[in-house]
Every structure is written in structure tokens, then in C-alpha cells.
Design the sequence.
């Protein structure tokens, strides 16, 4: 691919810094997805993807590019108005400078929504329930355990 963006995080005098580099790269992706649904009541899905990059600068810097990612989700609808789900994501990052590997991403989340009427849905969502510490992007750490509560209106 042309103009692939590579990023690195490093400490200088105890202060975190980021460096962004751009390079032509060759990328190879392979993956598999499995999906199972039972009567629109239960659905589960698993995805696994492997990635490999090659460029002149890639091997020299720690990046947040995924080497392997795994995603699993399950949703159940016990009654027509209620949906409950669980979602898990794991991402192993590529090795970089000095063979060091950035922290893996491991994220567990839950969701629930209730259809109050045809145009109004209430929902709650919890994320990073394992309270993992990792960078989503360079110098952009993931929030700890967090939640979102709200309503959605359709017009």
C-alpha cells in the first residue's frame, strides 16, 4: 500500500513522545469469521485476523499495528424489546525497536437496550470492564472501566 502510517511511542527524559512516519509498505492479511444465529434470539460471532507488514522503516520502530486480532461477540434477545450483548476484543501488537512488543489490547464490553416504543430505545453500555491499560493509538491511552447510558430516538 502507498503511504502507510507507522507510529512509535518513546520516552525522552521521562516524558512520552510520539513519532509518525510514512512509507510505502507491503501488507498481507488473512482471517476467518464464524457466525451462528438461532431464530433471531441468539447470535454469536468470532473473527480472527493475522497481519504482516514489510517496509524499510517498519522493523525499526515500535508500532501499534496489530499482528493478530481476535473479536468475539454474543447477543441474546430474550423478549422482543430487550437485547443484551457481550463483546471481547484482543489485539497483539507487532514487535518493534529492540524486539519490544507494545502492550496488547484486551477489551471486554457489555450492552443492553430496551425498545420502549417503535421510535424510542433506552440503552446502557459498559466498556473496558477488565480495566486494562493500553494505548489505542500513539499517546492515546484507553479509558479505564467506563459506562454510557442514554436514549436513542428515530425520526
Sequence:
Amino acid at each position: 500500500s502507498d503511504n502507510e502510517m507507522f507510529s512509535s511511542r518513546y520516552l525522552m527524559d521521562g516524558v512520552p513522545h510520539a513519532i509518525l512516519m510514512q512509507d510505502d509498505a507491503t501488507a498481507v492479511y488473512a482471517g476467518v469469521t464464524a457466525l451462528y444465529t438461532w431464530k433471531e434470539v441468539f447470535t454469536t460471532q468470532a473473527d480472527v485476523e493475522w497481519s504482516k507488514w514489510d517496509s524499510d522503516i517498519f522493523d525499526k520502530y515500535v508500532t501499534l499495528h496489530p499482528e493478530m486480532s481476535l473479536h468475539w461477540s454474543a447477543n441474546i434477545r430474550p423478549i422482543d424489546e430487550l437485547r443484551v450483548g457481550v463483546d471481547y476484543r484482543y489485539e497483539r501488537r507487532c514487535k518493534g525497536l529492540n524486539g519490544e512488543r507494545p502492550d496488547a489490547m484486551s477489551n471486554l464490553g457489555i450492552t443492553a437496550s430496551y425498545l420502549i416504543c417503535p421510535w424510542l430505545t433506552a440503552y446502557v453500555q459498559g466498556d473496558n470492564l477488565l480495566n486494562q491499560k493500553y494505548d489505542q493509538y500513539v499517546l492515546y491511552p484507553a479509558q479505564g472501566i467506563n459506562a454510557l447510558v442514554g436514549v436513542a430516538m428515530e425520526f
